[in-house]
Model the fold of this input.
Amino acid sequence: MTPQVVDEEVPSAPERRRPPAAVKGEALPAPAAPAQPAADRADAELLIAASVLLADAALTAKQAGAELTGALSSWRFGWEAVRRPGWALATAATCARALTSPAGLGFGANGGILGELVRTAGSMAYRRPAKVAMAVDAFAMRIKAAAVDHPNLDSPLAKRVTDAMVAGDRLEALRALYALIERLGVTRALTTISPVIMEMLALLGLLDENPGNDGFSWVTLAGGVPTTDPFLGLPSSLLKYLNPGSGRAERTEPDSILAKVLKTSRNDIVSYVSDIGALGNHGLVLLRRVACADGAVRHVLLLPGTSFGLLSNSTPQDMVGAFDGLLRTDTTYTRAVKKLLLRAGIPAGSELMIVGHSLGGLTAMNLAGDVELSSTYRVTHVITLGSPIDGKRPADHTTRVISLVNNHDVIPMLDGRGPASPNDLPDTWVELAWLDESYDYPLSHAPQAYSDTLRGEMAHYRTRVNELITAYDGEVVGNQPYMLRDK
Done:
């Protein structure tokens, strides 16, 4: 089962997980990480398999609680109670025992007005239902499994943080995190816990007093992309009010640095990453026209990622836009790019390859998933670098999706599918993942880190990607930068 965007009524947990450093369907070593003993690897696989079973059990218990609660609070049960009060009393007592007994669902009421009131009371009273206990154990197993490929998670300071989160002791978790930051610094501390950041946020949602953010945890457990925030449980639909721009695209001229880089650019993944780095993240994107070797004219769209300077700025490449792009598909960035394509006069039916880094990769997938755009142009390839795209799907099943992931990079894990997750991707996707020397975030997320790795120890990945995009070999006959604005 692949990860999907779901609401709080979640499906069964998926059965597979991402290899820590591998091409889809092809196991490859992670050069920067020491080889793990076969016994440790087997233990990690067993932990993941056990976590999947526990996740399924937790989700089943949650559903059983909802059905029991719904049956007790339904009008039909009330009608039967009037007709057969003795039967209704015995049935209600039996259901109540099943819902509240530690040997049963352990305060497992949920769903409907009555169920949510009882669930809220239980959360505020720190009652831990059976479904929550099993979910916590499932997340704990994922964290332990992740430590096999990320041994820093087993260091005393990092383990103190994760153990406190599993125990639901937020005060101790804050103390432990402070000690970790004091010892390693903010970036190294963040990088150390990043492989299990989604599991830790899910544990926070399950074990705090706020019942409103539980949906984040259950969706993460089931392998979906959460549509609420992990702290307050606010829905992602609120982002459309923070990022309401209609999008605008204006032609512009390259500065001297960009012009110099574009002179040597060609159909090569490292060249594309270098071009994206030269574009920066202040609103510039690039549309390239290529006279290909087979006589066809094709286009390449290069989309940079997020500017971290401000939460929101005048371009779609801001932090608000990043969260919007992760949780929704119709964003200011996608609207601006669609206007760019119209303004450029690209003929209907033209073949288009979209390459994006971070938010740019998210936007590439959002564009590929846009039915209107996919019916106007043929999106042949989407290549993403450091992008959390695993919950998204292209509208055209023939679109080739290539995802490049540095497993030290925090950002690709924000879709809920980190190294500890038991989720997998469609068989038609190509995912190339590795562990390199750019350990600390944000260095591990920078386009330069990806291009350096693809030039060096992962040069065979560069070759693999280039083999998949040979249709775009040819002469570059146009490089047009565009400045995108929110409105």
In short: Residues 1-34 have pLDDT under 50 and may be disordered.
